[in-house]
Amino acid sequence: MDGPSFGGPDRFAREHGAEWATLLALAGRPSGLLTPPEALDLATRYRSAVADLALARRRYPGDAVVDELERIVGLGRSALSSGRPTAWRSLIRLARSDYWRLILERPGTLLASAAMLLMPALLMGLWVAHDPASAARVLPDSVRAGSNAGRGSLGLPINVQAGAATLVTANNIGVAARAFAGGIVVGLGTAYVLATNGMLIGGVAAYADRAGTGQRFIALVAPHGILELSCVVIAGAAGLRMAWVLVDPGPCSRRSALGAESRRAVVQLVGTIPYFVVAGCAEGFITPRGFAAVPAVAIGLALASLLWVPIIVLGTRRGGVPPGPIALLDD
User: Full-prediction pTM beyond 0.85?
Assistant: First the structure.
């Protein structure tokens, strides 16, 4: 007999039926289509239904409500279990579309990052052309020594010129990480890192041209350098994303806005790692073949297209960045 304070199974089903129906509706949807709040609601309602099932088994053994609850709980359990591979599906979706749309989500940061890198390079080149001795004072010792030698490859033997090119390449990987981290100080660190790297690249290139070996320098750097600098620009844009929300967090608190944007920025930075690997392989296996400047630039543009074509094609598919959450970033 049921105690008077508990009511019968019909009353129990009426009191909890709406919650069970919602659980059934959530469990019937494909897990990949659940938003993060819905997935959390599914897990919460499943735990509640499990508690209801335990109570029903104790109060109403053998009643139809127990069988129905066992069915509902089983469906909820299956939905949660099938949701475990969602992270893998999200990773696939990230690689197929979301990462590229993420890069274009804030195009202003991408343009600003490119300007912070390329404008100092151009200005440094003009400075070298106008006053090479004075410009050399702000460049590394190896470049300064080459500028004082007067002739040769960067004013240096060919092995030292190759070392200068390697210096630029190895430096770019560290630059990407520092440009990203510099965003946390309102973008000032990002601007400094990009500008100083741009000055290095512009100065080395200008001294090579002044020494009459500009095409040789291009041949050494272009196959891997175009892709590397593209990655540096994207890493710098990731840093500027964080800087932007520190200045203008929008309707959210500055802390929550920074947390959300930092997740996106980290994904944007991490996505450049495979391309640095590709650039490293190009430096190790293509550059030593000694291509002339024009073929070297063509190779560099072809490798850079592996990055920019997906950004342009996949990043703008179906009208660009969707208004909803991007997989893995808002979970």
Answer: no
